[in-house]
């Protein structure tokens, strides 16, 4: 098993000794289909944007900058063997123009062979989910046996563009051949040309922010402010407990240039219902129920998993953690059903695998908003919704809370858009080992009204 240092190996070994042996169920292996496994996975601590990875003005006025690709380079150079990877796939959402194929630039910067293909995918909040399943497809089709997949987001350094008018002028200046032509263009520049275009966390098709959609969704399913605050408090409380008990073993220390080494997610902040209740509506004002406390926050972070065919992993002496089994992608109305990806994806992936909700031991869903999670619960537990919107005869049922996101979630741990999927898979794998389960469901919603669901099966111990 690849590790960064002997201490990490000792910690993982101790962790394995303390785990519960899983109960025995049928395996989801299929005749004629390669078994694909996650050998291991890591992530740097997820950090609130504007904190540890933010810009700093040095004493000489210089701007200290940590490029997006360097977050990925950490994994490729320190954790994964350059001699192993046959393909690298990374997901990201807010792309840096100079390194739009962040996977390739990071691989080259980490010293990988220039013969190792690398490409970048984007699918909003499920970008690293797409990276992983792309890797699964490459292995299943026989293109390769070893893929490094992951995701990265650096919200502390989002690209900010000139206005369209200014961009047009600058491009024209670049083509101008004479001084007179250049001057004629320059004199046309007006003050409003200098207004920057900031990236917005909003739907292009509806011009609505995700927070507005979450507020309307919560209202549609009668999810109260109290319920949302209670769920958010649960997420933070469980995340803090998981941190204190050393359960988040996929987190590796990260040395921020010019700063201290960060060792844990810094957005985990258990509060109280009284304190949370004082916050005002963040989106639909003044009567909305979505607040800063019951929403996920803008986050910097990166994650990676090592995916192999089972045959290759065993031949190399690795002990896999889990099988990646069936998965689905779904899409629905981006206005009224933007955040219902888990509701649509979960029953489909269960049917593909021949499982029911009762067979699932671990649920790991992306928490965009507390209201989003609770609305999905109500939709999944509604025969009426299943019949009228999903074309199903009956509901699939809501996940029981005692199996759901028991080590915290995106509300507390953070949500780097491109990196969360790998965290969900690794948490599911580790929880299955710890809790003695066999099957886990990973699910997430994403911008554009899309969603993803996957079955993770514990590797036999």
From TrEMBL:
GO BP annotation list: fatty acid beta-oxidation
Entries under InterPro entries matching the protein: Thiolase, Thiolase-like, Thiolase_acyl_enz_int_AS, Thiolase_AS, Thiolase_C, Thiolase_CS, Thiolase_N
SUPFAM superfamilies: Thiolase-like
Any one GO CC term of the record: mitochondrial inner membrane
Principal cellular location given in the protein's record: endoplasmic reticulum
GO molecular function, one term: acetyl-CoA C-myristoyltransferase activity
Residue intervals passing through the bilayer: none
Subcellular localization(s) per the UniProt record: Endoplasmic reticulum; Mitochondrion inner membrane; Mitochondrion outer membrane
Reactions catalysed according to its record: tetradecanoyl-CoA + acetyl-CoA = 3-oxohexadecanoyl-CoA + CoA; hexanoyl-CoA + acetyl-CoA = 3-oxooctanoyl-CoA + CoA; dodecanoyl-CoA + acetyl-CoA = 3-oxotetradecanoyl-CoA + CoA; an acyl-CoA + acetyl-CoA = a 3-oxoacyl-CoA + CoA
The keyword Translocase is assigned to this record: no
Keywords attached to this entry: Acetylation, Acyltransferase, Endoplasmic reticulum, Fatty acid metabolism, Lipid metabolism, Membrane, Mitochondrion, Mitochondrion inner membrane, Mitochondrion outer membrane, Transferase, Transit peptide
Thiolase N-terminal domain sequence ranges: 36-311
EC number: 2.3.1.155, 2.3.1.16
Described purpose of this protein according to its UniProt entry: Mitochondrial trifunctional enzyme catalyzes the last three of the four reactions of the mitochondrial beta-oxidation pathway. The mitochondrial beta-oxidation pathway is the major energy-producing process in tissues and is performed through four consecutive reactions breaking down fatty acids into acetyl-CoA. Among the enzymes involved in this pathway, the trifunctional enzyme exhibits specificity for long-chain fatty acids.
Subunit composition and interactions: Heterotetramer of 2 alpha/HADHA and 2 beta/HADHB subunits; forms the mitochondrial trifunctional enzyme. Also purified as higher order heterooligomers including a 4 alpha/HADHA and 4 beta/HADHB heterooligomer which physiological significance remains unclear. The mitochondrial trifunctional enzyme interacts with MTLN. Interacts with RSAD2/viperin.
Family per record: Belongs to the thiolase-like superfamily. Thiolase family.
Name used for this protein in its record: Trifunctional enzyme subunit beta, mitochondrial
Lineage: Eukaryota, Metazoa, Chordata, Craniata, Vertebrata
